[in-house]
Design a protein that fits this description.
Chain lengths: 169, 350
Amino acid sequence: MLCDKCGKQEATVKFVQIENNKKTELHLCRDCAHGYPGFSTGFDLQHLLSSLFQSVGLGQAVAPTVTMKTCPTCGRSIADIQKTGRLGCGSCYEAFREELNPVLRRLHGSGNHTGKVPARAFPKVRTARQMEELRRRLEECVRLEKYEEAAKYRDELRLLEKQLAGGEA
Amino acid sequence: MREIASWMRRTGPMGDIVLGTRCRLARNLAGIPFPEAATREQLREVLTKTAAAVAELEALGTFTYREMATMDALEREILVEEHLISPSHMQNPAHKAVILNAEHNISIMVNEEDHLRIQVLKPGLQLNEAWERATEVDDLLEQHLDFAFDLQTGYLTACPTNVGTALRASVMFHLPALQRVKKVQEVLGAVSKFGLTVRGLYGEGSDAWGNVYQLSNQITLGQSEDETIEHLARFTAQILYSEQQAREYLLEQERRLTTEDWLYRSYGILQNARMITSQEAMELLSDLKLGVDLGVIEHGDPDLLKQLMVQIRSAHLQSIMGQPLPVQERDRLRASLIRETLQKQITKGE
Ligand SMILES: [Zn+2]
Ligand SMILES: [Zn+2]
């Protein structure tokens, strides 16, 4: 389909506008979509998110117990989350883990956090993760034959190892 | 007159192409629903707890906690124009706050989409510096606050697109030469395949005024913060290289005169216009900045030019004039502010 605005390039973005309760759809090419004054990726994001939830199979035959399940902290159901594309609280992640995991994998290509860990809440895990990161950098430096930098990371690693063994962390 | 946020006051590393770098961390307090799902009392609880944690930040300087409802509309809009708060944080000020340091390069939005949005802004290309400072702020706050976190999913956020590291790192590019040779889409269009995203100057839904583009990471789960920063830095280097190539192309002998003519015409309009919209001003200032950065146009002070890019925005303009102004008046005063500033620079440069 050609762009509704310039009629020259292939339309790649669907732009939905609601004004005075009237819905208009525009199909725009990338250039025109970018210059379009009302173009909002925020609006599309919400739709994209709820569609991600829908394709998990929620729109189909869902066992009544699943639909009735609500988060113990905020009281949201998976239907609420699906509608807004937003979770109600931290406990939602635990309560709807099964439904969320495929969504997270679709969004990020992974369901597992490998980054920072809060220091006060998880001191040992934090140190372990820091060590993983240092090991990764160390290997990278060795591979690139940056031995001076590698030595620096090795020293940092030893320090953390000592900390972990000494139970200080 | 109020001072502009430090990251917009000066040019930084690679300042001819990179206007600024931002790192944003989303954090939520454990056991309290996210702002959208929280009651007024719960939102108040977040404000109280966060306000009490501000003291932890002492090591990083002086921080001020302000509730959005205590600011007038103009003050809030100025913070948006300096990227210190988001437009949505300005629009519904009830039960929201912002914590700012004196230099205005660290801001913490309270009760935006998440309980806390820690932002660090730096002039020019400073990805590592911005990330290191943001994680420092996070560590200091965590001494006092319990964050919603689990080992499998990481930092828990209202939107599943942020969960994990909850880090959004952005580089703000000025790409006038790529735009001129019509290669912006080619260079930026492919980034989504690599887990990155491009937006205009003022974030989601905004246009790329004055050829300013923000490149950010999209993936927050399954990669560490360092990997995210490295990945973004790699693409940044690519984009820098492409823009530099385009700039060299514009200066090649057979098109140098055309380039000079184009840039000097824009300069001429800025020096003479009696009325100008912020959009036109941004476009022409983009040309002028390119002219100065290429050495085509001799100029006193690149920092003043960067400051002009934010001073011409409506809230800043009205704040300079000390009163709210009708749109036509703004266009007139914007034109005269630009003329005066450029005149000053010419005298300064001589
Ligand atoms: Zn088009
Ligand atoms: Zn919940």
